């Protein structure tokens, strides 16, 4: 059954919108809305054969929506899977006594099983490419007179010398063998100032239980020699876990053993504490606290070791925007000196994240680090600018990437993303053209069936100086002067909205209005709004609301002043 319900197959027909009720609607609210629509669409109210046929179709659709939502089990399935979930065979194995929460748990279990099967069908490649650039000649060049001597009087007017002094490439792939066993193949190549080497590793990981896994690793390379390692992960409690990694490196100088253990514990919902001990060529003890929330990420770490002893603190702020922008800063001080880093990263496309970090240290100097994450691949470019603390290097390392990014974003990224969005919208229109045509016919039929009811409602509202919908439009409105060339795509929904008026009130729930009786989607994939001009107690009112916003009229704030 899980396989039959792919992610792309879930139907999004909104029964709640059709009945104009909240997703949390009670049985009484469902029944009241159902009865009202039955009175409107009942086939026996129409003598014309064509109207009778259209009324019967709409009546059956309303009845189907009510029957699904009135049954707790069917409603829970519909809330999770959509309309198509009700058509899939296999739900008969779900006990009728199961609660909606239990059905949702069943859905999550099926999702996990489907994810496991999907994992078995892919290799999950991961890779990193790092290119180190020496650009110290830009800010810390030799004196001009020295250049004239060394260059034979050629002068110092040449271009600054920028070179690539190191590169590193690593790649890994995973090959699931069974549901519990995975083989991992990884390799890397490195070069620094003309000298380089590489290595290759093969690992076999087995999930022993829900609480842990183990991994055996074999490696070989031309720089360190053969390697044998063992990794273990184990959940000790629901809030605490431990890892251990032991290895033996074989070289011409003998066997170099190493051992790393870590103990981690959830201190609270958003905070983790870590204790790490490392024994081998670089022995150390490390303690760190990491707090990660929706809006920030904080790390504090202290390490005592040979040769590196330091204290480090970093903070990252996460903006709640579509680009997932983050700004960060850190301070690290130890026997090696002090380093201050600050930077930012932002999402530039659906699968790409671009970041830049400025590193200022003593005695390290000034560096600019640019990183691009593209899906599971990482491209890293550390650019060393100067060995000294020069204000000019700090200024250009900070301002240069920002100006460059803003220019690229305006000239390249935004036009590209806009073109991609337009292509996606066009594909949605083409794929849903037949469905939209059907919805349009249903909406037009519903409007015809509403005419008599709307006439009576208007007469009743006029007699009491009540709520009269004068004009209502739904779809895409062009209000930005820079987009005047675009054509507004809207439909007239005056009759459907007047039909929903009861006792001089109109209430629309938080759902897409495209599912309301007499509505359809005139611009698939684009942002839509509802614009309405109405009269209440003889006074004109106007309102504009978003597609999924709840609306309740009349309101004093919608009133149009005589001066305007």
From TrEMBL:
Pfam families: DnaJ, DnaJ-like_C11_C, DNAJC11_beta-barrel. It comes from the Eukaryota. It is found in: Mitochondrion outer membrane. Belongs to the DNAJC11 family. It comes from Sinocyclocheilus rhinocerous. Coiled coil: none annotated. PANTHER family: DNAJ (HSP40) HOMOLOG, SUBFAMILY C, MEMBER 11, DNAJ HOMOLOG SUBFAMILY C MEMBER 11. Keywords: Acetylation, Chaperone, Coiled coil, Membrane, Mitochondrion, Mitochondrion outer membrane, Phosphoprotein. This is DnaJ homolog subfamily C member 11.
């Amino acid at each position: 059954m899980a396989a039959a319900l792919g992610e792309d197959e879930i139907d999004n027909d909104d029964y709640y919108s059709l009945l104009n009720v909240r997703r949390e609607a009670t049985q009484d609210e469902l029944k009241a809305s159902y009865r009202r629509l039955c009175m409107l669409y009942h086939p026996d109210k129409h003598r014309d054969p064509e109207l009778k046929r259209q009324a019967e179709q709409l009546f059956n659709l309303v009845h189907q929506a009510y029957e699904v939502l009135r049954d707790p089990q069917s409603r829970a399935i519909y809330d999770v899977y959509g309309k198509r979930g009700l058509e899939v065979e296999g739900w008969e194995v779900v006990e009728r006594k199961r609660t909606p929460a239990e059905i949702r748990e069943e859905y999550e279990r099926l999702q996990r099983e489907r994810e496991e099967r999907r994992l078995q069908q892919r290799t999950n490649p991961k890779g990193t490419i790092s290119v180190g650039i020496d650009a110290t000649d830009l800010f810390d060049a030799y004196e001009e007179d020295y250049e004239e001597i060394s260059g034979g009087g050629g002068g110092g007017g040449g271009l600054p010398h920028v070179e690539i002094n190191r590169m590193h490439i690593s790649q890994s792939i995973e090959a699931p063998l069974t549901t519990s066993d995975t083989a991992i193949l990884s390799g890397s190549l490195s070069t620094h100032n003309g000298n380089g080497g590489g290595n290759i590793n093969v690992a076999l990981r087995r999930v022993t239980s829900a609480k842990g896994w183990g991994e055996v690793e074999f490696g070989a390379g031309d720089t360190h020699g053969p390697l044998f390692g063992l990794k273990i992960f184990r959940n000790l409690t629901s809030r605490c876990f431990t890892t251990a990694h032991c290895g033996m490196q074989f070289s011409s100088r003998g066997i170099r053993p190493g051992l790393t253990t870590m103990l981690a514990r959830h201190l609270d919902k958003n905070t983790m504490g870590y204790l790490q001990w490392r024994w081998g060529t670089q022995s150390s003890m490390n303690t760190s606290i990491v707090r990660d929330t929706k809006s920030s990420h904080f790390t504090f770490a202290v390490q005592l070791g040979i040769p590196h002893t330091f204290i480090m603190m970093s903070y990252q702020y996460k903006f709640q925007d579509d680009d997932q922008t983050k700004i960060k800063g850190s301070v690290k001080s130890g026997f090696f000196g002090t380093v201050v880093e600050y930077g930012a990263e932002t999402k530039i496309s659906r699968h790409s994240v671009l970041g830049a970090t400025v590193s200022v240290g003593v005695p390290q100097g000034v560096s600019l680090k640019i990183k691009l994450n593209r899906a599971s691949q990482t491209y890293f470019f550390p650019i060393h600018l100067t060995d000294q603390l020069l204000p000019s290097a700090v200024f250009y390392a900070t301002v240069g990437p920002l100006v460059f990014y803003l220019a690229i974003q305006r000239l390249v990224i935004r036009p590209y993303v806009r073109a991609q969005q337009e292509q996606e919208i066009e594909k949605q229109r083409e794929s849903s053209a037949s469905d939209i045509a059907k919805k349009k016919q249903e909406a037009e039929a519903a409007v015809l069936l509403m005419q008599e009811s709307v006439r009576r409602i208007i007469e009743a509202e006029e007699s009491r100086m009540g709520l009269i919908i004068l004009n209502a439009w739904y779809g895409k409105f062009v209000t930005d002067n820079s987009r005047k060339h675009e054509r507004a795509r809207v439909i007239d929904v005056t009759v459907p909205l007047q039909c929903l008026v009861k006792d001089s009130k109109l209430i629309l729930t938080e759902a897409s209005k495209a599912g309301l009786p007499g509505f359809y989607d005139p611009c698939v994939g684009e942002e839509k709004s509802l614009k309405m001009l109405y009269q209440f107690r003889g006074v004109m009112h106007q309102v504009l609301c978003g597609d999924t916003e709840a609306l309740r009229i009349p309101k004093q704030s919608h009133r149009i002043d005589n001066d305007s």
